[in-house]
Every structure is written in C-alpha cells, then in structure tokens.
Amino acid sequence: MPDSESGRAGVLRGAGVSPGVGVGPVRSVAGAVPEPPAGSRHGGDAAAERDAALAALEEVAADLEARGARAAERGNTAGRDVLNAQALMARDPGLADGVRARIEEGTAAARAVFEAFGVYREMLAGAGEYMAARVSDLDDVRDRAVARLLGLPVPGVPESDEPFVLVARDLAPADTAVLDPAKVVAFVTEEGGPTSHTAILARTMGVPAVVALPGATSLADGTRVLVDGAAGTVRPEPADAEVEAARAAAAARAAALEGSTGPGATKDGHKVPLLANIGGPKDLEAALANGAEGVGLYRTEFLFLDRQEPPSDAEQEEAYRRVLEAFPQGRVVVRTLDAGADKPLAFLPPPGEEPNPALGERGLRMMRRHPEVLTAQLAALARAAAGLTTTLQVMAPMVTDADEAAFFAAACREAGVEHPGVMIEVPAAALRARDIAPEVEFFSIGTNDLAQYACAADRQVGGLAHLQDPWRPAVLDLVAPAAVAGVPCGVCGEAAGDPALACVLVGLGVTSLSMSAPSLPLVRAALARHTLDECRRAAAAARAARTAGQAREAARAHLPALSELGV
Ligand code: PEP
Ligand code: MG
Fold first, then answer.
1. Which of 340, 382, 398, 457 is at a distance of 20 to 30 A from 83, taking alpha carbons?
2. Is the distance from the beta carbon of residue 301 to the nearest atom of ligand 1 less than 6 Å?
C-alpha cells in the first residue's frame, strides 16, 4: 500500500483491541501446518498407528500444560487457564474415540487426527461469535498434534534477542501465553476479533494489539512498524516524529486513565453504575480488575454451549453463586438462557428447520417451549442468592411484548427470584416499552440485537457490519423510548463500551452501562469528563443526524474532552 506523498508504505488499519503504542521489527509466526491429504491410508498396522496418534495428543497436552505452568510463574494465570483448557481439548475422550475409529478403518494417524478435530471445529464455528473465537484454539491443538505426527516443526512464536512486533495470521493461546512482555512490543494479526484470545490475552498482558488487519502477514520480517493499539493502525517504517507523537498520545491517555477509578458518574455527579458483561466465573478477575460495580449481563448460555444434556441444578447453582459472591455490595444481572440463532444449545434444538434462525425460536420463545428448563434455572438462581447480600436481578432475552414480560415476571416470582426484568432488543418491545414497564422492575437494552433487527441485517453476516452500527439514528430512536419508559434502563450491548456512545446513551436517559471489562476505564473516564447536560446535548444532536457517521460527529462536537482520552 504505497503512500503517494512520501513514497513510504502507508498506514494499515485493523481493529485496535488492546491500547498502547509499540515500535519494533516484525517477526512472523512460523508457517501453517499443511492439511494431511484426504484419503491418506496407513500401512496396515492399526495398533501402531493408533498408539502414535494417541501419544502425539498426549504429548501436545503435556506441552500445553508445561507452557501454562511457565505462564503462571510469570503471573499470567489467565494464560495458564487458557492453555489448560486447550490441554483438555487434546485429552478429550470423544476426540480419542474419533481418532481410533478412523484409524481402524485404515485412515493414517495424521489424517485421522485432522478429521476428528474437524467434527468439533464445525460445532464451535456454528455456535455464535464467542464460541467461533475458540476455533483458533482448537486448530492450534490440532496443528500441534499433526505436526508431531508428520515430523514437521511445531508452529509457534519466533525466538528473538531484541524486542519485536509479533505478526501472525492468528495467534494461539499457547503462543501468546508464553511470550515475554519485555520482548514483545505489540501483536498484529490478520484474523481474530475483539473476543479472540489474541485480544483477551494481549489486554491481560498489557501489550498493544491490532487484530483483523488485512495484509498483516505480508509485512516482511524485519520491517520496523509502529503499532497503535488504540487507533487500530500499523505504520511501516515510521518517521521518528510519528513515533514520538504516537507515544505522547498514548502516555497522555494512560495518564488520563490512571485517575479513572471509583463508581461511574458524570462530571456533575450524576451516577451511572458501570457493570461488566461476563460469560461465567472465569471472567470475574478482569471485571474486578477494571473496577466493575457489578455484573450487568451474565450470559448464562456460555456455560452450557458444549453440553448435550441440561446442566444439573447443583452445577448451575455453583456457577451462579461464584459470580454473586464476587459483588457483595453490588448487583448481578443474570440473563436466562438465550438459546437459539447465534447461540444454539444442543439440548434445546429448534422445533424444526428454521429459514431465519435470528427470527425464530430463541431466547424467551425457546424457554416457553421448555418451561422446565426455565423453572430449573430460576430455582438455581434463587438458591444461589439465598443468604447473600448481592442484589440478584434476572432478565429474559428476546422479549417482544407485555404478555411475554408478564409471563417471565410470574415465573421469576414463583421461583423466588425477586427482581425480574427484560432485555429490550426487539424493535416492537422498544417502541412499546411503556406497555412492558409495568410488568417488570428493569430493562436492559441489547443494542447488538436491536441494531440487527432495526436494520434487518443479520449480525452473523460480516459483510453487513455497516448496517449494524448502533450509532444509526434509527437505533438511537428505539433506545430513547425504552430509556424513559418508567423503569431503570441499562444498556448491555457493545454500544455501552464505546466511550462517546456511552455518553449519548446516558444523555438519552439510560441509567447504567454494562460492557466487556477492558472497556470500563475509558468509559468511566469519558463520563467523568462530561456533564449530564453535555451528554443530553450530544444525544439530541446524534438523533437529529441523518446517518451513523453524522451522528457520531454531531455527538462528539458536544463531548469536547473525548480528545484528551485519545478517542
Ligand atoms: C445484545 O443483543 O445486545 C446483547 C447484549 O445480547 P447478545 O449479544 O448476547 O445477544
Ligand atoms: Mg441479544
């Protein structure tokens, strides 16, 4: 990508997922392990072939555990947990059965391993954005085993004596967790998203990272690059002045965030509780580290995505209690299972073939078909909260009207859950929020689905991302009536984690914001720098705009201190 004015290579743009600035030479991760050819047969000694395959899987598991232990020694317990989870994948008995069966039929060990992983891969890839992000973990385990069986170098990070920028198609947790933060100044990957392990671990390690950068792997080894993890940019061969300017901006931003602690509030003291979105107890550490005042969205289906059977009552109770106990003075908003569409659960299949799963049996609709699952979940929640000081609030996903809200509130009360609420993510519910409010105690707006349905753009279709922009005035027009319908109204979609949009949402009347934990400091800092009145003016200006881009610009004009934060 030449830069016509200077003749130097131009700026590459991806998604910034871990802030900070890093400068250094590119070092690329070793090449991919080739797929063993379809139809590869072994020589006839099935027992020897099977032993080799199972030994390779065990060696991979042991190696991953050893890497995990090394990561933990350096204080990276999140890295250790991810690596241990990968070791479990390698030791999965179902996987071993799949490998054995294929080898019995004559398939060569490497191919048998490759195919057996393929079954799990498809299940994960089709199980929604969060689980799809785990596919690269699974591929990494597979490639390590296949490489061992084919006698190829095991893929991994390069060795280097000097600090470097690590560039890869996608990074496996096994690589990122053993990296020395003193050596790696930034991560850049061609694939991955904000929920990929590269992103999560980069944030945990405090290393700047840019993911989803087209052409990343064509950067030649040794090229000096400037990576800005907040802006999401990579500049090859930067001038010294550019490096200095980027470092100064990052330092100013870090200094601004330093003071970003305590409960969320606007500059003039209007309180806006800042909460974390979590998928289970494993996410608590990041939530607490980033100062979450509680949990605003506990996506309980993430606990059960890989299950063939509903989880036991005791297991549910334990998973809920661990989260509730983390916020003894706060609140935890638990969402009942949002099965269906982008989050299919094996034990709750749709009743028939669905041409449009996003418009089909999902969320509360699915729970009404399986009331026993809803009742068991609500009862487990009530038991988990018994005797604790945490305020438990429970909400239903995909609610369309007041009748559904009333059904859910009655089910909650019956089970001993005191504070029922609903998500507002269907446009009909947003438009008639005033009819729903009397049935429940609170709303939480899911802007991810609200934007999907408002713009008729499937959120799983990457090519339609521009239509799913929550800055669209039409989406803001749907948020507005729900925010002032008479019950406390939070936002727990991704929009809440955008510092500028967070101010706009508060200006629309939203009373709390819930987001992935790393977004909390910046949102806290953005709110603390603006008055409620400025937020209201920003909201009015955004709604008066005609396009998402214009709404963003119009709002920013009323939020002058955002530039201090480098956003
Ligand atoms: C949403 O739709 O905005 C939301 C928070 O729920 P999920 O992303 O889990 O569908
Ligand atoms: Mg949703």
1. 340
2. no
Q: Which CATH class is domain 46-150?
A: mainly alpha
Does the C-beta of 518 come closer than 6 Å to ligand 1?
Answer: no
Q: First vs last Cα of the chain: how many Å apart?
A: 25
Identify which of 409, 287, 301 has the alpha carbon closest to the alpha carbon of residue 348: 301
Query: Quick one: tokens of 489?
Result: 């109204």
Please state the domain extents for the chain. Answer: 12-30+156-240, 46-150, 267-565
Model-level pTM? 0.68
Spatial separation of the C-alpha atoms in residues 485 and 430, rounded to whole Å: 9
Q: Give 17-74 pLDDT, tens digit per residue.
A: 788 899 999 998 876 788 999 999 999 999 999 999 999 999 999 988 988 887 788 7
Distance between Cα 106 and ligand 2 center (Å): 46
Distance CA 88, CA 435 (A): 48
Look up the CATH architecture of domain 12-30+156-240: 3-Layer(bba) Sandwich (3.50)
Residue 194 corresponds to which tokens in the numbers above? 């904000």
CA 112 to centroid of ligand 2, rounded, Å: 38
Ligand number, closest to the Cα atom of 128: 1
- Please return the burial class of 129, using the count of CB atoms within 10 Å of its CB with bins 0-12, 13-18 and 19+: middle
Q: What crossing angle do the helices spanning 473-483 and 447-454 adopt, rounded to 10°?
A: 130
Nearest ligand 1 atom to alpha carbon 452: 2
Fold of the 267-565 domain: TIM Barrel (3.20.20)
